[in-house]
């Protein structure tokens, strides 16, 4: 008999998405252009994300832009939310498009059409008893702030962000009680275009602008926490990081130390500031060794200390294996954030290593460090899905993946971890953030949209739809 797991009574089962990957309507309702609107589709996107010369301009002759229509949630949200409700979702993690609310980002007054759209989405969710879990900035910002201010390089963006969050909290204070500030904030070490709104120029030192922009985001995040608690007293607001437990390739102390230091920088630097309220001791040596001197204004450090987050949310897709001196051929195909191939792990069709035990390790590591409630807000399998002749989509591989990761969460809860919810990534097929593809599908719901832009946009249930419905109905007891 298979083991049954006991999840908390009010566990927030659900799914996760991002505005720029599913909404579409990129010029509708008064929305301004944002950074994802100028990111091309296809695997060329990865090259663009790492291109120091990227100019944030549209080039329709050279590229396609799948985010412009995405899966048209902008017009089909009622249909999609009804399907989420049929699965039994307790929560739906979504994001708000900053440029839908402030089209340029630096206006004094918001765009009413954009605010009204999210009113309708929240009302539809609440009609079914689904709690909105809202990311305030998910890999996007108004393009005007990038071109005129250099993204988060400029301290003025903190003021614009404060105006944005104040507008959101006042408008939706009776509809949304779970918030997050910046999506996968720590990923900007590798892809600043997504999170920080700028490309590192060839003649420029990588470290100084990145850490200065991080400081601006930390100040903005702390101010958002302060405002959220003031405007919505019964709310909870968290940070969000991408977490990869980091293994040493062997027991060589040099490799162990290298893996440890890589884990500190990627997994804990941003979390320590937002959860503990101060810069960690290890980062000060790092700054010294890389010649980094931050411009910190009076009151900044006090703000960080006094306004820490209520919970820690994170994405988990894979672990990371490291060694001090690695050859290019040792690097795993799908290891966007570094690391080498782990010979003990299988990979997805995109080369992402599959490691459910790593999720249990992650949950324990994070809870031991922070002692605050945790929330797994992204986890899932990107795969090619095939429609059979009878119209069915037998994504058993996705069920297997999710089952093992949910088991790992159950084990972590038994270990004593305080886990508040699980929203698997891409509960409905959407545009991949890293590769701009539709063919990299994560959802329980298939969307008839393809990499070349063709398709009817019709929705179809996959086999995993019924499976996840039973998981939620039994509060994680029935995983078969």
Automatic annotation (TrEMBL):
Q: Which GO terms describe its biological process?
A: carbohydrate catabolic process
Positions annotated as active site in the UniProt record:
378
Q: Which Pfam families match?
A: Glyco_hydro_1
GO CC field: cytosol
State the family named in the UniProt similarity comment for this chain.
Answer: Belongs to the glycosyl hydrolase 1 family.
The record's InterPro entries line, in alphabetical order, gives: GH, GH_1_N_CS, Glyco_hydro_1, Glyco_hydro_1_AS
Would the keyword Hydrolase turn up in this protein's UniProt record? yes
User: Taxonomy-wise, where does this protein's organism fall, top ranks first?
Assistant: Bacteria, Bacillati, Bacillota, Bacilli, Bacillales
Give the protein name, as stated in the record.
Answer: 6-phospho-beta-glucosidase
- Alphabetical keyword list: Glycosidase, Hydrolase
| UniProt-recorded Gene Ontology molecular function terms | beta-glucosidase activity
């Amino acid at each position: 008999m298979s083991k049954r797991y006991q999840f908390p009574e009010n566990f927030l089962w659900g799914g996760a998405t991002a505005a720029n990957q599913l909404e579409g309507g990129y010029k509708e309702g008064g929305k301004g252009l944002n950074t994802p609107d100028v990111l091309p589709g296809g695997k060329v996107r990865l090259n663009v994300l790492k291109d120091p010369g990227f100019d944030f301009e549209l080039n329709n002759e050279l590229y396609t832009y799948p985010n412009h229509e995405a899966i048209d949630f902008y017009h089909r949200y009622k249909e999609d939310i009804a399907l989420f409700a049929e699965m039994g979702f307790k929560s739906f993690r979504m994001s708000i498009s900053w440029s839908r609310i402030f089209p340029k980002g630096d206006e004094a007054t918001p765009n009413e059409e954009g605010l009204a759209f999210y009113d309708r989405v929240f009302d539809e969710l609440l009609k079914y008893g689904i709690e909105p879990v809202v990311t305030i900035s998910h890999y996007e910002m108004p393009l005007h702030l990038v071109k005129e201010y250099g993204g988060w390089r400029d301290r003025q963006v903190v003021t614009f962000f404060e105006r944005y969050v104040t507008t959101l909290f006042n408008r939706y204070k009776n509809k949304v009680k779970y918030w997050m500030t910046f999506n996968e904030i720590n990923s900007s070490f590798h892809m600043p275009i997504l999170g920080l709104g700028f490309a590192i120029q060839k003649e420029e030192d990588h470290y100084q602008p990145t850490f200065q922009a991080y400081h601006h985001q930390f100040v903005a995040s702390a101010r958002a926490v302060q405002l959220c608690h003031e405007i919505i007293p019964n709310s909870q607001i968290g940070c969000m990081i991408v977490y990869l437990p980091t293994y040493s390739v062997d027991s060589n102390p040099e490799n162990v130390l290298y893996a440890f230091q890589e884990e500190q920088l990627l997994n804990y630097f941003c979390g320590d500031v937002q959860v503990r309220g101060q810069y960690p001791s290890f980062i000060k040596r790092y700054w010294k060794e890389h010649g980094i001197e931050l411009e910190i204004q009076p009151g900044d450090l006090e703000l960080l200390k006094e306004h820490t987050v209520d919970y820690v949310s994170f994405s988990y897709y894979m672990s990371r294996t490291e060694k001090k001196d690695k050859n290019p051929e040792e690097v795993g195909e799908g290891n966007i954030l570094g690391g080498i191939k782990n010979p003990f792990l299988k990979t997805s069709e995109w080369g992402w290593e599959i490691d459910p035990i790593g999720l249990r390790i992650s949950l324990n590591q994070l809870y031991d460090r922070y002692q605050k409630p945790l929330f797994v807000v992204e986890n899932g399998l990107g795969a090619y899905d095939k429609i059979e002749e009878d119209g069915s989509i037998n994504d058993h591989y996705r069920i297997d993946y999710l089952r093992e990761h949910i088991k790992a969460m159950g084990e972590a809860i038994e270990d004593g971890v305080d886990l508040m919810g699980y929203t698997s990534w891409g509960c409905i097929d959407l545009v991949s953030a890293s590769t701009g593809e539709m063919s990299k599908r994560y959802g329980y719901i298939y969307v008839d949209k393809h990499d070349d832009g063709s398709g009817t946009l019709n929705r179809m249930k996959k086999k995993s739809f019924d499976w996840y419905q039973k998981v939620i109905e039994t509060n994680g007891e029935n995983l078969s």
